[in-house]
Each structure stands twice: as C-alpha cells, then as structure tokens.
Amino acid sequence: MPDPDNDLLRKALAKAVAGLPGSGRLSVVEVAADGLTSFKIIRDDHGVPRGRRWHSSWTELGQERAALLRAADVDPGDDTLLVCSSLGGSQADEAFEWLRAARPDAPTLRVDASVAAVITEVLRDDPLTRSYDLVVLRPRPDGTLELATVPLFPVQARPGATMTMTLHCEQGGPNGTAFAVVTWQGQEPLLLSVASGALHPGTYNVTAELRRPGRVQFSGLPPLTDDHRGWAELIDEIPARLPVRPSDAGHLICAIEVCGAEEKVAERVGRARQVVSTLSGRPGLSVSVVAYGAHSFDRAVKDSPVEVRAWRVDVAAAQDALDELEERGAITQGYPYHPHAAQVEDMLVTVDRRLSRDPASSVALLTIGDRPPHPPKLDTSRVLPCPHRHDWRAVAIRLEQSRHVVFGAIVDYQYGDRLPRVWRQLGSAALANFDALDIRGLISGLGLVSDAVPVPFPLIDVEY
Q1: Which is nearest to 330 in space by CA: 366, 297, 294?
Q2: Which three-class secondary structure state does DSSP give residue 64?
Q3: Which fold has domain 251-445?
Q4: pLDDT digits (tens, 9 = 90+) for 297-343
Q5: How far is CA 267 from the centre of its chain?
Q6: What H or E segment, with its residue span, contains residue 289?
Q7: pTM of the full predicted structure?
Q8: Which CATH number is correct for 4-125, 3.30.300, 3.40.50, 1.10.10, 3.30.420?
C-alpha cells in the first residue's frame, strides 16, 4: 500500500517541476540519517528537466549551522522544497530546523523514502513543455528539396506516447540516414537528438515513442545509433536536388551527326557506344540509333534523308547498329552539302513522327554533333533554310511538352563559351563536352540511372 507521505512528496515534486520556468531553478534539500543532499533542477534549452546533486556527510558538516547552510546552497531566488527522510534523529532534526528557519517560505515534508529515487521518477514522467518534431526533406515539383518537419509529440505529451508515420529514405551518406528531433525557439529549430543508421532506399512505416523527456526512440527501422553531429554539419549534407531515379523501362534515342570529317564521325559514334555500353545492365532499356547528315542544295545531288538505323532495340542490337554506322562512315561531306549546318531539324521531326506511332513512358534524346540546325526561313545566321521548312524550335517544344522527352547532348565546346541556343535547348537536362565526357553525369541527367548523391534525412510526400 503506498505511503501517503511518499505520495505527497511525489505530488509536491511533480507540481514544483511542472511550474519550473525556463530560467528558474528548483532546490530540493534532503536531510537524511547519513547527511545532507542538495538537488538542483533546471530546464535546459529544450524544456527538459535536468537534475544534479551534492552530498555532504554529518562528519564533513560537523555541528556548524553555517556549514550546513553553505552545503544546502539554497538561493533566495530558487523555488525550494525541504525534505527530512531521517525520522527520529536528533542531529537531522536540528539541521532540518536550521533550514526551515533559513527558508520559512519553503514547503517542508517528512518522508521515509529515497528522495533521489522520487526525483528521478518525477523527471522521467514530466510532460513535455515544448513540442518535438522530426526533421525531414520534402521534394518540390522541380526536384529541389525543402527542409521541413513532421510533428511528433505536442506540448503536454507524456512518456509512452507514440506516433506512426510513413517515410521514404534514399541512400544516406557516410553516417547513414539521420533521424533528427528538434524543438523550437521562436522560428529557429534546436537540435534535441540525432540517431542515424544505414538504411536501404525504400519506404518505411516508422513509429516514434517518447521514452522520457529528451529521449525519442524509433522502431520499424534497422538499428540506429546515437549521432553526435551538430545542426550545421547535418544541414551541409543536404543536396540541392532529389537524386534522379530511373524510370521503369526507358527509351534512349542516340541521334548522331554523320557529316564532316571521317575521324570526327567515328568519334561521335564512339561516344554513343560508350553511353550505350554503360547502360548495358539497365533492365528493360530500349535503344534507338538515328543518323543525320547535311542538306544538299544542288538539285543534281539528291538530299540524304535522316536514317533510323535501329528503333527500340536492346543494347546488343544497338551496338551492332553503331558498328555498322562506324564502318559506313561519313555520308555527307564537301560540296554541295552545307558546310555549316546539319539536318538537326529533320532529325527532330523524324523522332517526333516515330514517337507519335510508338509512344513510350520515358524517352531521352541524346544528340551527338556540332553543327546547328537549318532555320525554317532566312534569318540573321545566314544559314540556308531547311528545304522542308522544318522549325526545330517548334518540334523541340512539342517533343518536350507533348512527348515528355528529356534532352541531352554531347557537343564540342570550350568551357566558358556561350553555347548556341540549340544546344542549350537540346542539352537542357544533360550537356556534355565532347572531349571531357562525364558518362555517369550525362546518363544521370537523362534520368537513366540514379544519382550517387546521399540524402541525409528521411523524405515525405514522395511519389514513385
């Protein structure tokens, strides 16, 4: 049966701790058979009650009132509770009376329980004075990441409270994925705790449990360990964008310029082969190979049309088509073929027509060349207009908006040079330098492989 006095102590301590302001201090002084113990309880920056204690034996204190008051360290500004847990001891009774005389305003209690054990219990069960949130990242429609939080526990939540949520995790960094809990000081988050672990990318049903003030435990995950990184270090790891995930299948169209010098054409075909070879392990990928040259502006010389050398074939068949293209070599060079432009606009029209008959959920068009397209009519570029009056801009917009084509290009340019508009458009998702080709970056930009970019926090509102 609970002791009424001990229960009264528990209630008195709970009330005193609950009313403790953020900048205040609660002093609890226990007079016991073995000496005097002074407990100091404050709230930290998160509103969590923290306690410290000092013990002085009667031998150390002697019979001096001044020594006892110094050991009690009862500041006039402290909320104070005086407790005697030594029943019937003359030395303890005398010391208790000295304390009561020093702080006549302080409540007093006589109990036969361990004050330290009751304080530990009260601090463990104290309801929250600040809400707890979990730090997450929310992808915006453009792929950039917004730092956000998910509410875990409101003010007045008690130990044992739980909250379940669905989170998505990408590949984490060296420390894994961080489950960081924060409180708030105005509009600024304060880092309460961090637990991190190595998680496989995927979706998790996570349950957070409030074990005690200042301590949140997560379940539904692989094991997590305490992470001692600070807020700034955690935030520095957030990437600018969500890593691009490959589509379920994917269709890569390699459009290769085959006009000009033989060695240049061979190099372009070689670049296409590098890209296709890198994607050889990509499940379900289909590849198309399209070749385009230059227009002839001599009625006596027939214009060479855009060639579809392979359409939606597997990687092995695409490699065969590239081998044949390399063996055949350049098809339009010298007079009467235009020396400063190529059939880029005709190539775009050919791709658009093919896709209209054979739509795919995810298409990446990789153009490998140097020359600009022919304009639909005479303009300031002095490049002769396309004989078919094809408008490359209009077709590119249609491919992007109606066919959802992602554009990438490999062109020969010097870093720092201003690229012509056509290559900024046809390389809008992934633009590579012909002589310094970053294969991984190129195919990541095209959405054909996942970026190797760690994401340090869980994600919410993710649709896959």
Answers
A1: 294
A2: coil
A3: Rossmann fold (3.40.50)
A4: 888 888 889 999 999 999 999 999 999 999 998 887 776 788 889 99
A5: 39
A6: strand 286-292
A7: 0.60
A8: 3.30.420
